[in-house]
Amino acid sequence: MAEPGWAKGDPIRTSDDYLESLRGRDLDVWLFGERVDEPLDHPIIRPSINAIAETFDLAERRPDLATAKSAITGERVNRFLHVTESVDDVVAQNRMQRELGRLTGTCFQRCVGMDAVNSLYSVTFDVDEAHGTQYHARFRNFLEMAQRQGYVLGGAMTDVKGDRSKGPSEQSDPDLFVRIVERRDDGVVIRGAKAHQTGCINSHWILVMPTMRLTASDRDYAVVCAIPVEASGLTYIYGRQACDTRAMEPGSIDVGNAQYSGQEAMIIIDDVFVPWDKVFLDGEHEFAAPLVERFTAYHRRSYVCKSGVGDVLIGAAALVADYNGVERASHVRDKLVEMNHLNETIYGTGMAASHESFRTAAGNYENDGMLANVCKHHVTRFPFEIGRLAQDLAGGFVSTLPSEAELTHERLGPLLDKYLAAKDGVPTEHRVRVLRLIENMTMGRNAVGYLTESMHGAGSPQAQRIQIARLADMEGKKEAAKRLAGIDDGTR
Ligand code: SF4
Ligand code: FE
Asked: Considering the domain boundaries, does residue 365 fall inside one?
């Protein structure tokens, strides 16, 4: 008798359970002007689902790395759903992220939810302390359900923002930031749109959060809540990626990374009802800023994911040098050293931020904000330089190769096999495949994750510079200088 498969409502434990849990949800997903029947079966969407499935496989293979014992359920849960209980828990997130970046070569999409869980855990506690509300207990109940069921959580922070010089309540169209349009006895109704939503279609629940500091007149915009991805009133408009339609062509070479990709979509929230037990902030506008600051502190060191993706690109650049027979050339070796230096600098600052974690009033652990901002700021630059060096080592064929259809063509295939050959003993196809991978990561689908997301994800470069300026303690530095220079100006 065949093993019984996953059934709706069962806990999701394995990647097969996860894939089955996505099937038949009848989501309102749009791509190329058409409603997508089943995202799971769509060749452009499926690689992004595979990337999340890898987080379940890793949890099975390496429970030490990708699971943790939860104080909420008393059971082991996927680390992406875990509330950090120690410094080691925060550090372990970074180790897991590097490994998943290395395994997938792209964005595996679950860190937004993980970082939302940990920032909301402490912020809901602080709101309750200040206002006597019940948000923390509600949030813990939600989390307990999510941990028991093994759900994938998406975090929705980035509003579409309209006129960037104006706040939410000053916009001529009030819907440009997500807001409460109705308060009822049984809950609230929300409306608006969230942009660049990583992995939203591949999730089970979405944690909606405000995107910026709010004032008293923005009260209706101060909303945090959980909504099921299947909620009626949600529309998902898929963000297309460079070279995405290659996934619809026959063959597996030209896509570069046939298995994995990231996913971003716009979510239109058209009057979605949220019951009170899933509302975790309602009007306490002064807590929007601490929430954004805590979330970005976690998320900006989550970008060590890019050091794992960088491992793949550095490996690809080294392989192409080997295949071309130039692996011993001193400039090639030096470029690979430079790439590793940049990559480890990203990882080092992210890990340092996590090692410097402190206990919050709510009892979970939060990483250092300054070092996290420095980490993310490196990420806005170094992957671009690593990508430039990878293209340098790849040579011009990284962007002039013929298609797989010619490589397998009856007449042209043997000619290309002869004239695209490199070092003796290296199959031409291997050289072509690694060049396509470099193309994929620096210009194609996964350049979205490796480059553009590195620039803008978790905040564009200026957002980190503002935080670095705020956290730099310049007065303390001036005092240190004055003391050693023997300056006594009466201010000490
Ligand atoms: Fe995680 Fe990195 Fe993707 Fe953000 S960009 S969700 S940190 S893998
Ligand atoms: Fe991101």
From this structure: yes
CA of 319 to the centre of ligand 1 (A): 26
Say whether pTM exceeds 0.70: yes
Q: How many CB atoms lie under 10 A from the CB of residue 252?
A: 15
DSSP 8-state code for residue 84: P
**Whether the Cβ atoms of residue 196 and residue 210 lie closer than 8 Å to each other:** no
Residue 465's domain spans which residues? Answer: 298-472
Q: Determine the pLDDT at residue 1.
A: 46
* Dist CA 120 CA 127 (whole Å): 10
Q: Which residue, among 142, 134, 129, has the nearest Cα to 83 in the 3D structure?
A: 142
What pLDDT does residue 5 have? Answer: 83
Per the domain annotation, does 78 fall within a domain?
no
CATH of the domain at 440: 1.20.140.10
Q: Which residues of 78-110 are buried (b: 16+ CB within 10 A; e: fewer)?
A: bbbbbbbbebebbbbbbbbbbbbbbbbbbbbbb
Beta-strand runs (E) in 321-477: 358-359, 365-366
Pocket probe for ligand 1: among 109, 241, 296, 309, the residue whose CB has the most ligand atoms within 8 Å is 109
SS3 category, 281: strand
Q: Label residue 228 exposed, middle or buried (CB < 10 Å: 0-12, 13-18, 19+).
A: middle
Tell me the DSSP string of 179-226: EEEEE-SSEEEEEEEEEEEETGGG-SEEEE---S---GGGGGG-EEEE
Residue 351 in any domain: the answer is yes
CA distance 134 to 138: 6
Residue written as tokens 């929230």?
Answer: 269
Q: How many CA atoms lie within 13 A of 391 on its CB side?
A: 15
| Rounded CA separation 379/300 (Å) | 9
Pick the residue whose CA is nearest to atom 6 on ligand 1: 109
Is residue 238 in a domain?
A: no
- Strand 223-228 and strand 179-183: pairing? unpaired
Which residue positions in the chain have pLDDT lower than 70?
1-4, 492
Dihedral (C-alpha) 371, 375, 376, 380: value to the nearest 10 degrees?
A: 140
Residue matched to tokens 């060049």: 435
Q: Known catalytic residue: 236?
A: no
Is 341 within 8 Å of 268 (Cβ atoms)? no
Pocket of ligand 1 (CB under 6 A): 107-109, 111-112, 198, 302-303, 305, 453, 457
Ligand 1 atom nearest 302 alpha carbon: 7
Atom of ligand 1 nearest to the CA of 305: 2
Mean residue pLDDT across the chain: 97
Domain count of the chain? 1
Among positive and negative, which fits the CA dihedral 310, 428, 246, 257? negative
